[in-house]
Amino acid sequence: MTGATTGATTDSIGSPDELAQTLDGIGYLADEGVATAAFLAVRMQRPLFCEGEPGTGKTSLALALSEAFGLPLIRLQCHEGIDAAQALYEWDFPRQLLHLRALEAVGTLDVEAAEQSLYTERFLLARPLLRALTEAPCVLLVDEIDRADDEFEAFLLQLLDENAVTIPEYGEVRAATPPLVVLTSNRTREVHDALKRRCLYHWLEHPDLAREIAILRRKVPGLGERLATQVAGAVRRLREMELLKPPGVAESMDWARALQTLGREELDAESAARTLGAVLKYSEDLDRVRAKLDTLLS
Ligand SMILES: Nc1ncnc2c1ncn2[C@@H]1O[C@H](COP(=O)(O)OP(=O)(O)OP(=O)(O)O)[C@@H](O)[C@H]1O
Ligand SMILES: [Mg+2]
C-alpha cells in the first residue's frame, strides 16, 4: 500500500515506535499499547478491534491511520437496525424495473436472459463494506459495532476472514488488496467471540496526564502549558468521581477551548464553574461537581 502526506507505507513501517512517530506527525499521540496493536494489525493484515470508554481515541485512530498511509477512509457507522442493504449492497430495484420495461418495449424479452441481465454490476449499489473490497487499498472503519443488532455481526465474518463477500445472485467479490479494517465498540454490549476471534484486540484507556497535556497542546492552538496542565489534571479527577458520563479527550479539548474563548489563563473555581458545561453533560454530574469544586482544582 502507498503513503502520501507522511511518505509512510504499510510496508515501510518497521516497528510500533516508528508507527507512533508517524501518527504523532499528523497529530495522533499513540501510547505504546495502541501503537503496538495498530502496527501488528497493519503488518499482519489483520482487523483491529478497539474497545474503550467514549473519547479514548478509537475512531480517530482509524482516521489517523488512513491519513498516515494516504489511504482513503471508508466508514460504516453502525446503528440499531442496520442491515445488509445499508452496509453491504443493494440491488437498484427501480433501475432494474426500468431496464425490464425497456426490454419489453423493444420486444426482445427472453425471460432468462432478461433476468440474468438484472444481476450485473450495473444494477449493484455498493455500500461501505462492498466498497472497501472493490476500492482497497483503503482503511475500513466499522464504527460502534455494539450499536448494531448482534445478528449484524454475521455479515462481517466472511469479509474479515477472506476479504471477500458472496452475493447470491452475482457471485463472490474479493479484494485485490486487503483493506485495513478497524472496528470500534464502546462495549454497551459484548460482541460475539466469533467476530473477536478474527481480530486483534485492544482496549484503549484514557491517556495518562502527560499524554493528555500533550494532546491538548497539540489540538488546541495557543493553549499555554499551565492551563493545559490544569485542565488535564481536573479532568483526571473528574474521571475518578464515578460520574454518569466521565469526560473523554474531546471534553478536555472543549473545556480548554471554552476557557480560552473567555480569555482565561487560569482554571480557578470561578472559571471552572462558568465553563463546566463544556466538560459535563448531565445535570446530576454538574450538581455533584459544583458542590466540591475545590477538590477538583486542588
Ligand atoms: N491519542 C490521541 N491523540 C490525539 N487526539 C486524540 C487522542 N485520543 C483522542 N483524541 C481526540 O479526542 C477526540 C475524541 O476521540 P475519538 O472520537 O476518536 O474517541 P472515541 O474513542 O471514538 O469516542 P466514542 O466512543 O465517543 O466514539 C477527537 O477529537 C480526537 O482527535
Ligand atoms: Mg468513536
Structure description:
This protein has 298 residues and is an alpha/beta fold. The chain folds into three domains: 16-86 and 127-204, Rossmann fold (3-Layer(aba) Sandwich), CATH 3.40.50.300; 89-122, no CATH class; 209-292. 47% of the residues lie in helices and 13% in strands. It has 15 helices and nine strands. It has helices at residues 16-25, 32-44, 58-68, 84-87, 93-105, 111-118, 128-135, 153-162, 193-197, 209-219, 225-239, 249-261, 269-275, 283-290, 293-297, and strands spanning 48-52, 73-77, 89-91, 124-126, 139-143, 164-167, 171-174, 180-185, 200-204. The strands form three sheets. It has a five-stranded parallel sheet with strand order 2-5-8-1-9, sandwiched between helices. It has a two-stranded antiparallel sheet with strand order 3-4. A two-stranded antiparallel ribbon has the order 6-7. The chain is elongated. The relative contact order is 0.13. The mean pLDDT is 93. Magnesium ion binds at residues 58-59, 143, 184.
DSSP summary, beta strand count:
9
Q: Fraction of residues in helices?
A: 40-55%
Structural class: alpha/beta
Whole-number mean pLDDT: 93
Count structural domains: 3
- What would CATH call the class of the largest domain? Alpha Beta
The best one-word shape is elongated
Q: Look up the CATH topology of the largest domain.
A: Rossmann fold
Strand order of the largest sheet: 2-5-8-1-9
What Rg, in angstroms, do the CA atoms define? Answer: 24 Å
Feature tags:
five-stranded parallel β-sheet; binds adenosine-5'-triphosphate; two-stranded antiparallel ribbon; 13% strand; 298 residues; binds magnesium ion; 47% helix; 15 helices; alpha/beta; Rossmann fold
